[in-house]
Amino acid sequence: QVQLVESGGGLVQAGGSLRLSCAVSGRTFSIYAMGWFRQASGKEREFVAAIIRSVGTAYYADSVKGRFTISRDNAKNTVYLQMNSLKPEDTAVYYCATRQIGSVVTNPEGWNYWGQGTQVTVSS
Q1: What is the dihedral of CA 46, 90, 11, 117, to 10 degrees?
Q2: Which residues pair with 23 in a beta bridge?
Q3: Bridge-partner residues for 113, per DSSP?
Q4: How far is CA 72 from CA 8, 22, 76, 88, in A?
Q5: 123, containing H or E segment
Q6: How far is 47 from 3, CA to CA, in rounded Å?
Q7: Mind listing the pLDDT tens digit for each residue in 73-120?
């Protein structure tokens, strides 16, 4: 059993930055990867970034590559998403998730546990 709580969302102007945090608790020893997904109003949930918990290898969607950075602090059981150069199209509810199987997939169906989400709104 894993619990996740996101924080750090808010309203920011285009070109600005936000840092999201996700506190993970429970059976953290079973986690292989942690990830961030987002879901804009009326759209499907989509992959944003992921990181392998043990070694820190990171993966990004093409839409955010070069602008977003995922990181983790294993001692604090926390994963972060630093978002720079934000665009209006980044507006969405952002969710963190964990995956137990030892590989990274972009399909949300492959991720087991989810947080409640935090709203990010980027104004133009």
Answers
A1: 10
A2: 5, 78
A3: 98
A4: 15, 9, 8, 26
A5: strand 118-123
A6: 19
A7: 999 999 999 999 999 999 999 999 999 999 999 999 999 999 999 999
Cβ neighbours of 57 (radius 10 Å)? 11
Cβ-contact 50, 59 below 8 angstroms: yes
Which residue bears the tokens 């994963």? Answer: 79
Q: Which two tokens stand for residue 74?
A: 């294993």
DSSP string, 17-65: -EEEEEEEEESGGG--EEEEEEE-TTS--EEEEEEETTT--EEE-TTTT
Q: Are 50 and 32 in contact (CB under 8 A)?
A: no
